[in-house]
Amino acid sequence: MSAGTAIYVVTDPGVPAFGAKGCSVHVQEVLRELCRRHRIVHLITTRPGGDAPADLAGVVVHPLPRPCAAGLAEREAAQRAADDVAAAMLTRLCRENAVTLVYQRYALWSAATLEAARLAGVPTVLEINAPLLREQAEHRGLHDADAAHHWSVRALEAADAPFAVAGPVARWAERLDPRQRSIPVVGNGVDVRRFTPAPRRLTAEPVVAFAGTFKPWHGLELLVDAVAAARAAGPGLRLLLVGDGPELAATVTRAQDAGVPVIATGQLDPSEVPGWLRGADLAAAPYPAGDHYFSPLKVAEYLAAGLPTVASAIADLPGLVADGVEALLVPPGDVRATAAAVARLAGDPGLRSRMARAGRRAAEQRMSWTAVVDATLRLLPAVVLAQEVG
Questions:
Q1: Do domains 2-189+369-389 and 207-367 have the same CATH topology?
Q2: What CATH topology corresponds to 2-189+369-389?
Q3: How many CB atoms are closer than 10 A to CB 13?
Q4: Lowest CB count within 10 Å: 140, 146, 253, 329, which one?
Q5: 89-127: pLDDT as tens digits
């Protein structure tokens, strides 16, 4: 453990730090790794999202004003003001503590903290999870696109070690980066201590698990249609839906209409998810055809849980997972191919067993959060050395 202090900054109002969303799990896992490496960890956040898990109770939380204005222009102005408040907080923390790292999750209207860290001489990591400028404009609305672009450029300019969680995101960030750097890719991970395999058993009706927040881009219609087709073609299958979200009810109804037995857990605390996955025989991560740029957390979690997995070959997955060995990859949006892969796994216990072992090894060796954060922090020494030499 380092004797120093780390500061984690997440100012996106859509990311509840201690919530149950995938982004929340990501924040919490990085915090756990920072806590293992630093004596004190501070969290500057717009949205704490509830009480910290017991193992993160020692994190010192500094809440920011949460923008609550009705109009886009007012909300954006409030977020820019919160950026200044966050920078003042960070400056004070750097003055009062031996801060050795600032780790920031990229958010719109969040650049002043990185600039303040640079002025304080503290190395900074910038984690880029999505092309937020494009996401915001397409899905939620953006009043001042020029200002938002400027804030993102400022963040990249100030960051010592920006990195992206997937290749398409890295390429997007490179086009913004005024320093014209090659942005490294460090994919998402999994806590291999919490997600562990259960003893496998032979079941007449294997259980296919899907875990997520049930959003439209998760390919839920594809999931149900593929499982229904696989069930009709071979062994009976049951569907386990782990989590909650706006598409859950429609997904359950579609499964019932298709004659697929379904169990839906509803909203869970992240700590409950591994236990539910241990009750499955295989898992699915289907996605519709389209422009996918993210690194699915669920695939790493499935593999760590020893679940043979069928996944759409989106973004970087073909380079991260060995097709046919660690998982079965299928074209995005292809119901027939997804159904065939599910049926193949369901009907071949030997293949499921081999793939479960290979997937678990992959998670342990390449996808643990410890390995992910180690890879992230290894980006810093060369940067800091270059600055010292310059």
A1: yes
A2: Rossmann fold (3.40.50)
A3: 20
A4: 146
A5: 999 999 999 999 999 999 999 999 999 999 999 999 999
